[in-house]
Amino acid sequence: MDVAVHKDFLAQYVVDANEAVEFRLVHSSKDIEKDEGTFNPEMSHQFFGEGESIFGYRDLTVQLFFGAASLEIFLGEKYTEKISTKKSQGVAPDNVMQIIGSKLPENDFHTSLDVFTSKIESVEPTFRPTGSLQHHWKTDEGVSYEIYHNLVSDEKYRKYHMRMESFVMWYIDGASYIDTEDVNWNSFVLYEKRRVAGETWFTFCGYCTVYKYWAYPDKQRPRVSQILVLPPFQKKGLGSQLLQSVYNFYQSRPDVVDITFEDPSDELTRIRDFLDCKNCQRLSSFHAAKLQKGFTDDMRSEAKEKFKIGRRQARRVYEILRLKNTPKKSAAEYKKYRLDVKNRLNATNRQEQINIEKAKKAFKKEGATMPEFHLVSDSIEKLDAEYKELEAVYMHVIERLSRD
Question: Of the listed 81, 121, 262, 399, which one is catalytic?
Fold first, then answer.
């Protein structure tokens, strides 16, 4: 067979993994039989490579069903044809079940739909969350939500956490599983709670993990690691409720220095900015009249004392709230604001350059070569572009603050 023709022939057996993989949360066998209720991953490169494609099948559907509350797992696949190595000239189809199964909790998932169905029929109606209830509320539509805190290392909870983690690699870029035996890991789990035919039904919506780092000599600096709200429950403000619950858990503790974040995604950064601004705008030091005078030590100290916000984030909150309270119709005030932010950006870039130069000298002293780093230039054009990009981010936060 001609090489080009063979290549076109094999292309018929390549499917988009993000479309082929389907998740579903099920309470009973009736949910399995329904066509609606499925959702897809946002990414699959940690399973199927950068191309995020699966080879060897026609009309492939990969089924990842979860007990809506218990998170019992079923892994299955359906297809109309699986290519033979004779047809593919020796190229074996991807072993989808093995690839995905290797990243699911060991010996804790089903490949028989009958066994899975029987299991959820018995465990879903009686499921109750473990841990301590941290927050509960009801929406205007009458839907109730609850958030529970657990130590990941707790024997009663650890297995459940490992099931929860089955979602993260599909939705958080660069995600990895945590050490569930480490006593410093904390978990906050979000559930929807409904009354159905006189029974209470829970549905898993998402979770957040926080690691307790120690701060010398006897304090801690909790670090938010991962936060995930599943697609069916997004755009409802649940991520903000989940993070605020984490804040509430730590902010009143005298041994907590501040709350930090581990390489937050853009979405988590937006949630963090929104909550920090919403909270800080109630503080006296962040009063609109005081914002126009610039960032102060009072802002830094009050944000840290009341909400465990570090200096860098407190400065960012100040910039967002000052922009919110700066009328763009006033050219003079708006110009003052832009110069204030640009001066901070310029100083930050210069300090980073100084730090890199110091590091280069240290590497040279040790006889090693330091990797190259590229900073944003402090030229007027580059600085202006950096400012505009930052202001656009700030405006999204301000728009949400205005709505809530």
Answer: 262
Q: Where does 132-263 sit in CATH, by number?
A: 3.40.630.30
Q: How many CB atoms lie within 10 A of CB 285?
A: 19
Q: Give the whole-angstrom CA distance, residue 208 versus residue 74.
A: 24
Is 235 known to sit in a ligand binding site? yes
Annotated binding residue at 138? no
Angle at 231 between CA 230 and CA 237, to 5 degrees: 80
Cα–Cα distance, 360 to 47 (Å, whole number): 37
Higher per-residue confidence, 259 vs 9: 259
Residues carrying CATH 1.10.10.390, the chain = 286-403
Distance CA 141, CA 174 (A): 36
Question: What contacts 391, CB < 8 A, 6 or more positions away?
Answer: 323, 341
Work out the pLDDT band at 9, boundaries 50, 70, 90. confident
Amino acid identity for residue 364 in this structure: K
Q: Which CATH superfamily is domain 3-123 in?
A: Histone acetyl transferase 1 (HAT1), N-terminal domain (3.90.360.10)
* Short-list 76, 86, 73, 61, CA closest to 6: 86
77 is catalytic: no
Tokens describing residue 31: 């949910």
Q: Is 206 marked as a binding-site residue?
A: no
The verdict on whether residue 132 carries a ligand-binding annotation is no
Least confident of 1-15, 230-244, 268-282: 1-15
Domain 286-403, CATH 3.30.70.260 — does that match?
no
Model pTM?
0.89
Confidence of residue 360 (pLDDT cuts 50, 70, 90): low
**Helices and strands, counts by H and E, the chain:** 15, 14
Report pLDDT digits (tens) over 285-343.
999 999 999 999 999 999 999 999 999 999 999 999 999 999 888 999 999 999 999 99
Q: Give span(s): CATH 3.40.630.30, the chain.
A: 132-263
Q: Is 237 annotated as a binding residue?
A: yes
pLDDT score at 377: 47
Q: Which 8-state DSSP code applies to residue 326?
A: S
Residue-wise pLDDT for 384-393, tens only, equals: 999 999 999 9
